[in-house]
Amino acid sequence: MKIKTSFYVLIFCISAFSCKKEQNSVDTTPKKYAQLEKANWFLGNWENVTEEMTFKEIWKQENDSAFVGESFVTVKKDTVFYEKVYLKERNDSLFYIVSVKEQNKEQPVSFYLTTATDNQVVFENPKHDFPNKIAYNKIGNDSILATIYGIKKGKEVSENFPMKKSK
């Protein structure tokens, strides 16, 4: 009887120790999104106000793996252009996913990160007509330059969007 009881106690101890060890091996460290962190300087309100129009981009952190942005152009009080953008990190890659009102049936178009430094991020989608490349350059803590590149009427063109931080 003593042997049988000792055997059950031994089995119980082994089981308890094994379960406890498995519980301790669960990684509770929050996942780092290194690619998204390279674009932290996007966050905030950016604008360029001229006599003809106002161009704005507003970027917020949606969750630990995504930023959401809105870009719009207003002329007088009318919004003449609007797009919604997501910066999403998936599988250690960063994507710039944009939906433009009244374009592409408002279906999202994805661009993937090709260059990332402390002061520049570049996203590309060679299969898209215009733009097929989007670059953001951090000029200073309060100014950025967004540039889009692509083909229009058979010619390579680019458009610049300088912005100052407003908030």
Topology:
Blueprint: H1 2-24, H2 34-37, E1 44-49, E2 54-63, E3 66-75, E4 78-90, E5 93-100, E6 109-116, E7 120-124, E8 133-140, E9 143-152, E10 155-165
Antiparallel strand pairs: 1-2, 1-10, 2-3, 3-4, 4-5, 5-6, 6-7, 7-8, 8-9, 9-10
Give the key terms.
single chain, 53% strand, 167 residues, alpha+beta
* Cα shape: globular
Q: What pattern of helices and strands is seen along the backbone? A: HHEEEEEEEEEE
Distance between the termini: 77 Å
What would you report as the Rg, rounded to the nearest angstrom? 25 Å
Low-confidence stretches: 5-13, 16-23
Give the mean pLDDT.
85
Sheet having the most strands: 10 strands, antiparallel, barrel
How much helix, percentage-wise, in residues?
10-25%
Total count of strands: 10
Which structural class should the secondary elements be placed in? alpha+beta
Strand percentage: over 45%
